[in-house]
Amino acid sequence: xxxxxxxxxxxxxxxxxxxxxxxxxxxxxxxxxxxxxxxxxxxxxxxxxxxxxxxxxxxxxxxxxxxxxxxxxxxxxxxxxxxxxxxxxxxxxxxxxxxxxxxxxxxxxxxxxxxxxxxxxxxxxxxxxxxxxxxxxxxxxxxxxxxxxxxxxxxxxxxxxxxxxxxxxxxxxxxxxxxxxxxxxxxxxxxxxxxxxxxxxxxxxxxxxxxxxxxxxxxxxxxxxxxxxxxxxxxxxxxxxxxxxxxxxxxxxxxxxxxxxxxxxxxxxxxxxxxxxxxxxxxxxxxxx
Length: 289
Hints:
11 strands, single chain, 25% strand, 9 helices, 39% helix, 5-stranded mixed sheet, 4-stranded antiparallel sheet
């Protein structure tokens, strides 16, 4: 459903009001880091009464909140889609150097459950999200893993190769995008990530590493994300099966009409380089004209 300009304006005004409340709650800029260029962009758009506003939407508001529990810090990155709060939830992602990957995935999964079950569309929910974090984060620091974290398989011979093609409703968050890159490197995976709406990720490498990477990433807070295509092959040479020589973020996000879309033409040309244009229809359900 396409949003009207009136609804977009109402959503953005509500987002600015919520941000002002959070700034009053956390006046220390070390606690609440805001990209003020984006905020100014939104304000200018709201005040502009001329021009093609529908095709020139402002940047998305995003910011980071740093909470501390007994000297251990937790960073929560919040991105506000244009549809929030009328038709969608905020995108919230929490991480900490003091949590294991499994604890971090569990925390984000529980946070998403809170968003899905305890919040109401059309009603601002950021103060509720922060209250939930303040009440629940500390328990994750108190937990002790019953099992050591699984070791990453860095051997590339006598094993199984996998390639996952992943479709996400959208991929905006700068922090989430960075963590996708870092985690792929950690698991010795190659491929790419293309942000925007929709977002597309491809990872390839040792099958178990792909599975472990996916088990972590899928528990982050997403509106919708799933593996569209999975390619598996028994091999004695994983590197010989790779299409990509590294993992990188590709493409640019275009502000077209009412949203921030990936450039489909650019993506198709990228697939042509690797002779994988067949995945285009599988991912999007359409033929490239």
